[in-house]
């Protein structure tokens, strides 16, 4: 009998698939970001919308350009999986809401080209692209990156209309001084530097943070909505609980201890947790698949590290906010964590030696 | 259950996957027996170990159940004629294997009489010595029917030697689509229990545990009823979760013990057999019948009339499918042909592949079921790490294999991989992880062979060097000898000449 | 006690030799392809750095300064460092041929590792005591080893990534270490 | 001036003595890595690497003048083993390894000259003078030294047929 010609190359099992896909995961993360983003538009008006849009466009554009230059055969498929758009979205969430247009363009370029495509594209990078861009921008352009506006419902001036918003965004209209303010952490840092006691300086700060009614990054808006998004991701199993819990605990525990020891010197746990990019970072940045450890234990360590470093930089460092630095530092440590924290292989002990065989009776 | 699940997930005990089992409706339909096909193709290697050696000649007529190929070597199994007829050839047949390569096989033309040879049954197996049971099981060519096809007698006698205490009967059948074990347990529970008792007697275990996934309530009920009077046979439902039917996982769930890596279940006093094997052992001992047929599941969206079919070993998949109503729409929507289950089964290049002892199913899947698509790059989501029942890092291993760093992949556990397919099943990027691992294992085996070859070469080169030295030495010795002889001769001549001169004077 | 800790932390993290002072980049780029050899290099450099800090301090305080030979400082320090490195090299060659092989030329090149000479000279410049010099040397070595290890881990990951051909090898390594330096800027201004 | 000269001389002398003593205690005989590599190589001294023998190739690989892939009979297996031992990264794709090959005698062309069997490093070619030669499959290492010696081009290298036991699942196409 003559074997018939094989038309397809041989493939290995399994011949079934669970149906999960990269696109679905990215879509769910974006869905989880949506409430906080919409609320952010309401808080900060048109300029923030332009910032958000341009960040995403810049990221997607850079991705397309980079893929074209590297001669990738799958440009469309890669763009459609939504990872570049998500990077842009997350970058926008960490920027001051009224940052000028060139910040968005440059940020998107840095995030995608230097943070991601240089390493080979999605899944290959070692640092979180959005955080790379955020830190690079902060270090290079400290002024526009620390210009915080008051949420419009709190401001004395009326919200800028579409045209005024566009002009502010394009830099042809200066940001009115009347609506700028300082973030809670920045305020704490300057007050401390002036030798003031934090207890007096920030009497009733955290209460407004739940609703986002204080100056801050675009995505820091309402802690409540970020938390809801995070819980949605947890429930749909897009993320696991280890990294977020690690971040929150890593900040809360030292903050609580420090506050108990010297309330005038250290912010309390609640103020630390609700301010800055902490919640956003805990649920959306620290859970980034690519740049966090593979194992549950590793992710817990990773989260604790981010939390602790954030607290250290916030409390002792030169910058008021340390989330982005902490994320990058722990990203760098991820391969080391992965090297030492591995799941136990069935039938072996933690060191990889086969289990002892019991003595036969 | 939901809460329990959540707790287990929190505790990190969340191995495996929960695929859509798609066992019904095929599992609920009664078993059909397939009529005898015209020709049977019996590969000489249907089991793990060395291939069997044919003991028949072309043209010879054989009776049903007659030995046609004998076991050779310590780990091997004989092959018997599934029906009476004439041996028409000893040639090659396509193996149930993705490579599409052929295997040597005996081809038997059925004469239609289906006449049994003389069988040597035993009314009271418990009077037999355990070793005798092992011998009979070996002679009947029984192999593990769960899929691995390891000769059962080797396991039984090995277990008896290492004094196992527990016999685990694997009724997990965790592969989606397949329901032949389910069907056997529903229809022949009493016979299976009898087989279990015989095996327990043969291996000397005290307790027999039957593990059945809880998605088969009818089978659990039937087995529990059949084992009712037996204090030492316990039927235990286990949670439906793939790969529950894998030996090490089932042992862990049933007994809480862990088989050491590089070790076997014997080492912790456990012997595992499939339910189908229990039935085959019973037939071999009680009736003296060799293993010549098996129950298999014909399933998949492309099959017109799916169900479980009793098939003679050596029947072509083509004939089995024709019996099951053929393919829908003449196989237009067919995306993949599989022997075995969808998670670990073998893709086959065409349907002219024989059913062997370890074939548990024939699947004809359409494109929606296969859901194949071009893979994306790994996004390191870690789903595979969570799903891996062995605790490996599939993403790291595949990245190393992609860069051909096979030794590095072994360092992080490639050899512990059981190729269950959980990682590839959950991968959002659809990376064919198992293919990477199978490829790497193949490459490593090839390298190992290369190493052995190098060693053999060195030995041969050394021998040649010795030979050359010896030859040179012998040549030198011979030359020396000849020279000595020549000199002696010359001396003698000279002496003789001197004498003549003397004599002359 | 807290002063000791502070000095260690500040030399290891805030004023990291590699990422902030840009000293000793040659071995960082050269021996960071695998974590194991990076660890070996880190140990070797730590040994040399600590020993060289102590030896150069003694040399400076007990010989050069009393004799007024400050102008011979660099010459003498290099002599001492070279000897220590030579000794280390012999020791590693004897005890771990594999590590010796994988460190290659970078092992003798510790001699010219500017971190070593730099730390020895900085010790003199800041007029540290012997104990503080040792601490300073050790802290710097700690920072060096830490960065080397982290960087080697990152490079092992990057080696498995699909880096575009134009960036493969050294370019992507430079980008990686620049991003690492960016991350370390978070420690700037750190004071307790 | 004198102090400077003296102190430098003294320093140099002391350090020199210390290092001299150390080199006595820490001396290493030969290069153990080369010996290890020699033990790994096929040892048939077939010469395909371009070095006089396996030990020459091992030394060249260790000092870096030859790549670990220079041994064709060793194939990928040896190359990756050597690379692992030396901690080198090696590009295996450059190695022409399309499966093992063995020599085959075309019987109708063989004149029984015995030239091939003389060069075979493993004595894999059997046959007396004026008799058709044959290659002993198990002993042939595929070094191809015999091919060029054959005056009638009766010898050729043929790939071994792939069997189920030797088949390797192809690597998935890169995404």
From TrEMBL, chain A:
InterPro entries: NqrB/RnfD, RnfD_bac. One of its GO terms (biological process) is transmembrane transport. The modification FMN phosphoryl threonine is found at residue 183. It is found in: Cell inner membrane. Its EC number is 7.-.-.-. Keywords: Cell inner membrane, Cell membrane, Electron transport, Flavoprotein, FMN, Membrane, Phosphoprotein, Translocase, Transmembrane, Transmembrane helix, Transport. Coiled coil: none annotated. NCBIfam families: rnfD (TIGR01946). The complex is composed of six subunits: RnfA, RnfB, RnfC, RnfD, RnfE and RnfG. This is Ion-translocating oxidoreductase complex subunit D. The lineage of its organism: Bacteria, Pseudomonadati, Pseudomonadota, Betaproteobacteria, Rhodocyclales. The gene is rnfD.
From TrEMBL, chain B:
GO terms for molecular function: 4 iron, 4 sulfur cluster binding; electron transfer activity; metal ion binding. It is a peripheral membrane protein. Its EC number is 7.-.-.-. Its cofactor is [4Fe-4S] cluster. One of its GO terms (cellular component) is plasma membrane. Keywords: 4Fe-4S, Cell inner membrane, Cell membrane, Electron transport, Iron, Iron-sulfur, Membrane, Metal-binding, Repeat, Translocase, Transport. [4Fe-4S] cluster 2 binds at residues 388, 417, 420, 423. Residues 463-484 are annotated as: Disordered. It is found in: Cell inner membrane. Residues 369-398, 406-437 form the 4Fe-4S ferredoxin-type domain. GO terms for biological process: electron transport chain. It is an enzyme of class 7 (translocase). Binds 2 [4Fe-4S] clusters per subunit. [4Fe-4S] cluster 1 binds at residues 378, 381, 384, 427. It holds the Pfam family Fer4_7. PANTHER family: ION-TRANSLOCATING OXIDOREDUCTASE COMPLEX SUBUNIT C (PTHR43034). The complex is composed of six subunits: RnfA, RnfB, RnfC, RnfD, RnfE and RnfG. Belongs to the 4Fe4S bacterial-type ferredoxin family. RnfC subfamily. Part of a membrane-bound complex that couples electron transfer with translocation of ions across the membrane. This is Ion-translocating oxidoreductase complex subunit C.
From TrEMBL, chain C:
The chain crosses the membrane at residues 6-26, 38-59, 71-91, 103-122, 134-154, 166-187. It is a multi-pass membrane protein. It comes from the Bacteria. GO terms for cellular component: endomembrane system; plasma membrane. Its main location: membrane. It is found in: Cell inner membrane; Endomembrane system. Pfam families: Rnf-Nqr (PF02508). Keywords: Cell inner membrane, Cell membrane, Electron transport, Membrane, Translocase, Transmembrane, Transmembrane helix, Transport. Its EC number is 7.-.-.-. InterPro entries: Ion_transpt_RnfA/RsxA, NqrDE/RnfAE, NqrDE/RnfAE_oxidrdctase. GO terms for biological process: electron transport chain. Part of a membrane-bound complex that couples electron transfer with translocation of ions across the membrane. Belongs to the NqrDE/RnfAE family. The complex is composed of six subunits: RnfA, RnfB, RnfC, RnfD, RnfE and RnfG. This is Ion-translocating oxidoreductase complex subunit A. The lineage of its organism: Bacteria, Pseudomonadati, Pseudomonadota, Betaproteobacteria, Rhodocyclales.
UniProtKB/TrEMBL annotation, chain D:
[4Fe-4S] cluster 3 binds at residues 120, 140, 143, 146. Its cofactor is [4Fe-4S] cluster. [4Fe-4S] cluster 2 binds at residues 110, 113, 116, 150. One of its GO terms (molecular function) is electron transfer activity. [4Fe-4S] cluster 1 binds at residues 46, 49, 54, 71. Binds 3 [4Fe-4S] clusters. It comes from the Bacteria. Transmembrane segments: none annotated. Residues 101-125, 130-160 form the 4Fe-4S ferredoxin-type domain. It is found in: Cell inner membrane. Keywords: 4Fe-4S, Cell inner membrane, Cell membrane, Electron transport, Iron, Iron-sulfur, Membrane, Metal-binding, Repeat, Translocase, Transport. Residues 1-23 are annotated as: Hydrophobic. It is an enzyme of class 7 (translocase). One of its GO terms (cellular component) is plasma membrane. Residues 29-88 form the 4Fe-4S domain. InterPro entries: 4Fe-4S_dom (IPR007202), 4Fe4S_Fe-S-bd (IPR017896), 4Fe4S_Fe_S_CS (IPR017900), 4Fe4S_Ferredoxin_RnfB (IPR050395), Elect_transpt_cplx_RnfB/RsxB (IPR010207), RnfB/RsxB_Proteobac (IPR016463). Its EC number is 7.-.-.-. GO terms for biological process: electron transport chain. NCBIfam families: rnfB (TIGR01944). Part of a membrane-bound complex that couples electron transfer with translocation of ions across the membrane. Belongs to the 4Fe4S bacterial-type ferredoxin family. RnfB subfamily. The complex is composed of six subunits: RnfA, RnfB, RnfC, RnfD, RnfE and RnfG. This is Ion-translocating oxidoreductase complex subunit B.
